[in-house]
Amino acid sequence: MENTYQLAEHFISINGEGQLAGALALFLRFAGCNLRCDWCDTAWACGKDAPHETVPLSRIVQIAEDAAAQGVKTVTLTGGEPLLQEHIADVMERLGRMGLRVEVETNGAVPLKPFLRCGACFTMDYKLPSSRMEQHMCTENFALLRESDTVKFVCGSRADVFRAKEIAAQYKPQCPLYLSPVFGRIDPAEIVEIMKDEHMGNFRLQLQLHKFIWDPNARGV
Ligand code: SF4
User: Fold this and answer.
1) Pocket test for ligand 1, best of 81, 128, 137 (most atoms within 8 A of CB)
2) What's the rounded Cα separation, in Å, for the pair 210 and 22?
3) Atom number in ligand 1 closest to CA 36
4) What is the pLDDT of residues 5-37, one digit of tens each?
5) Please, what are the domains in the chain?
6) In the prediction, which pLDDT does 92 show?
7) Model pTM greater than 0.70?
8) What order of strands is seen across the sheet that includes strand 53-56?
9) pLDDT band for position 48 (50/70/90)?
């Protein structure tokens, strides 16, 4: 029996964030999430009743082959929380063997250790106080991150930016650190002011590109 996965949607677009922002990628969005962030923009994909197709690994491989034939070099696994899918490591390894760069967008509430051998790069969120989910963060993940990974601090308030500074100083992750404003909740200019005032030269501000290019509520882009 082939392993199956709950796939909520798949599409080709540009990466909106992270080290490969602006580059084309195949997005595989998996259904289900173990968090309920206050400002979640994909809440429709989070619940147990999230619309999805149950697909075998061979179907995912076929979708990836079609994307690769169109010149796509990166696959982004997202959600929901993709690492909650049973046997997701098999997907990561298989897509990697096809020569694709595999990026995993993960919410910071799943231990990364079992997935480090899969050859993927992680963009790990750290959920700050405005999300109301900070208590679920697996802080032991910080010590495992590599230069090819990213920590994304999603900031919905000024207090979040100060907390990001505190967390980075405490855990010292050895990878790029991004501050990403929650669209419509905090003016990016305010974040820049705090970065200057607080000497946060080890962070980079990033904007969610797709929110500016398309309707902020659009799906599949
Ligand atoms: S972790 Fe991501 S998908 Fe899950 S509730 Fe938070 S923002 Fe939404």
Assistant:
1) 81
2) 9
3) 5
4) 999 999 999 998 778 889 999 999 999 999 999
5) 4-213 (3.20.20.70)
6) 98
7) yes
8) 53-56, 4-14, 24-30, 74-78, 101-106, 121-127, 150-155, 177-181, 203-205
9) confident
Tokens 């996965």 -> residue: 5
Grouping H, G, I as helix, E, B as strand and the rest as coil, residue 93 is: helix
- CA–CA distances in Å: residue 139 to residues 26, 101, 108: 29, 26, 8
Cis check for the bond before 47: say yes or no (omega within 30 of 0): no
Q: How far is the CA of 42 from the centre of ligand 1 (A)?
A: 7
Residues with CB under 6 A from ligand 1: 33, 35-37, 40, 42, 46, 79-81, 107
The residues, any chain, with a CB within 8 Å of residue 46's CB and separated by 6 or more, are: 31, 32, 33, 35, 36, 40, 79, 80
Instruction: Determine the atom of ligand 1 nearest the C-alpha atom of 33.
Output: 4
